Amino acid sequence: GERFIYSDLNFMLLAHIVERVSGQSFDRFVQDHLFDPLGMVETWFNPPAALRDRIAPTERCAVLAWPCGDPEAPMLRGRVHDPTARRMGGVAGHAGLFSTARDLASFCAMLLAGGAYEGGQLLAPLTVARMTTVSTPSHLADKRGLGWDIDSRFSSNRGDLFSVGSYGHTGFTGTSLWLDPVSETFVVFLSSRLHPEGEGDVRALRGEVATLVASALRD
Length: 219
Fold this sequence. Notes:
Blueprint: H1 9-22, H2 26-35, E1 44-45, H3 83-87, E2 97-98, H4 101-112, E3 116-117, E4 120-121, H5 125-131, E5 143-144, E6 149-151, E7 167-170, E8 176-180, E9 185-189, H6 203-217
Antiparallel strand pairs: 1-2, 3-4, 5-6, 7-8, 8-9
């Protein structure tokens, strides 16, 4: 309870626990219990090669290399950028998922509906509430839920107008979700900030987009 450290390790462990308890591989489990019920038909770990032309590239990198940036290496495209997830075969609890704005809209709608989607209940309402309630000690400046960012040094994608009761997350390659239960609004931001040389920065732009969305709701 002394400090907050952003780390992938607990989510890697969580995926392993899911596999042990369910008897399924992690990618199979989330496909059966989350993606298929939500109609997320374009969301995968290790997407098919036939979809490569629709997937945003990141930067040049050998399959198991880190850091990236070798000018002679192939461009990563359709392969997870995160080096640990690449070494784990592309399926991990902390990275490796490819998706589309349409699919992520279904995911966000389910969360804003308390885990419900088209007559089904994928997550219990109390589960969603618990995930999105501040779980860090009250004396810490960084306010985090269970897996979700609420008000921390990583919250620039919230913008200037969404309330602290909203929540979201960012991805290293330039992706972001932010959800506001009060206005029943979500913002899906998909970019590839690393292309082509691994040096892009979209933090300000993500915040500006969220601010514009929130300001439109108040007009």
